[in-house]
């Protein structure tokens, strides 16, 4: 393994070591927060789990730092020495893990799975510390080679699925880590050739699909499809032109639709039809939450809601009066009780509950009419 790759590996190990320690601290803080906000009988166990996670994070951090030190020793002097202190820390951490993973442990299943993974990682760290310099180098070379072949397989699968943008992203990362690699260069050639062969047909097919989406006014889906098309063929002028055209049509559709809803709302308000204006306003807010017209309506929404309720109660009052005049007392009582239940603090509810409903029940009993359920 070259000096640059070795240096990169040690830097990554140190970053991961720092992350492990930070995660341990965050888990401890989360457990303390849960303990303070939970039941008193759970506090001790939660705090204990938090301390255990902090120990695990610290142990992993120490182990990874040991690996980094070993790698640095390989790169500088060709040999490395693992201090007895680090070996002792790893042994203590292993003992703690064995205890927490024992059948007598009270940790939840999810924590057990996490600890099992940490236990496996620590076993790999312990094994690494016991290797000779040559064995460590062979092990790291093997890991790097496995990762290289895995990414190459992923890129080939993405090429087969015509997911050109994702394949390009993966291949670019591969090329940065393995510059001049012959197999990687072959995959680059295969990607460019396959993408070029599929380009014209894909553009035509996507254009037809986008036209259908626009006919159905599915502008968001059309823009998303065009965006993916440009990502897959970034140098294709037709793809970029299609995206620009669909984006303009989407903006025009949003503007016209929002304006029409706004005009309909204003018309309902001018006619004092608050019950008709409210659902239109709610539709405007849900469909175009960031539009300028929506901002105007949002400021009036509370007033519209209150006026719509007042209007509904007034309409129900009229219905109750009509039912009383028709001697349909049972229906009138049922409707009045519904007003009291839905609008208990309204003036109509107070009047109905204190005056009208008791009188209607008396009349209903006198005439022997059945009450409405």
Strand tally: 0
Number of helical runs? 13
End-to-end gap: 85 Å
Q: Tell me the Rg in angstroms.
A: 36 Å
The major beta sheet can be summarized as: none
Describe the structure.
This protein is an all-alpha fold. It has three domains: 3-130; 157-256, no CATH class; 272-367, no CATH class. It is 85% helix and 0% strand. It is built from 13 helices and no strands. The protein has helices spanning 3-37, 40-76, 84-100, 109-129, 133-160, 164-177, 182-215, 219-232, 237-270, 274-287, 292-325, 329-342, 347-367. Helix 1 (3-37) runs antiparallel to helix 2 (40-76) and helix 2 packs parallel to helix 4. The longest helix is centred in the N-terminal third of the chain and has 37 residues, at 40-76. The radius of gyration is 36 Å and the shape is flat. The termini are far apart. The model is unreliable at 1-6 and 75-82 (pLDDT under 50).
């Amino acid at each position: 393994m070259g000096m640059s790759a070795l240096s990169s590996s040690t830097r990554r190990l140190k970053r991961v070591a720092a992350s492990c320690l930070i995660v341990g601290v965050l888990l401890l803080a989360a457990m303390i927060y849960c303990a303070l906000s939970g039941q008193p009988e759970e506090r001790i166990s939660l705090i204990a789990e938090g301390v255990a996670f902090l120990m695990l994070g610290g142990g992993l951090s120490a182990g990874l730092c040991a690996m980094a030190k070993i790698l640095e020793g390989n790169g500088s002097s060709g040999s490395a020495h693992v201090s007895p202190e680090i070996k002792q820390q790893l042994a203590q951490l292993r003992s703690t893990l064995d205890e927490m993973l024992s059948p007598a442990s009270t940790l939840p299943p999810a924590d057990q799975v996490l600890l099992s993974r940490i236990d496996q990682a620590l076993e790999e760290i312990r094994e690494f510390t016991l290797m000779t310099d040559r064995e460590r180098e062979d092990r790291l070379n093997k890991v790097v080679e496995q990762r290289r072949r895995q990414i190459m397989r992923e890129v080939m699968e993405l090429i087969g699925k015509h997911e050109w943008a994702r394949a390009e992203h993966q291949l670019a990362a591969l090329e940065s880590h393995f510059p001049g690699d012959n197999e990687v260069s072959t995959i680059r050639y295969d990607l460019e050739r396959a993408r070029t062969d599929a380009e014209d047909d894909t553009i035509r097919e996507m254009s037809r699909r986008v036209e259908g989406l626009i006919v159905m006014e599915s502008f968001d889906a059309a823009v998303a499809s065009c965006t993916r098309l440009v990502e897959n063929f970034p140098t294709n002028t037709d793809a970029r032109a299609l995206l620009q055209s669909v984006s303009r049509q989407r903006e025009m559709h949003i503007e016209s639709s929002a304006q029409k809803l706004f005009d309909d709302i204003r018309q309902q308000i001018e006619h004092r039809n608050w019950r008709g204006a409210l659902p239109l306003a709610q539709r405007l807010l849900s469909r175009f939450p960031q539009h300028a017209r929506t901002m105007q309506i949002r400021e009036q929404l509370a007033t519209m809601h209150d006026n719509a309720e007042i209007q509904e109660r007034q309409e129900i009052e009229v219905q109750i009066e009509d039912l009383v005049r028709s001697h349909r007392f049972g229906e009138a009582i049922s409707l009045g009780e519904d007003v009291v239940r839905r609008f208990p603090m309204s003036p109509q509810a107070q009047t109905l509950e204190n005056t009208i409903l008791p009188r209607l029940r008396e009349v209903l009993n006198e005439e022997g009419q059945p009450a409405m359920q």
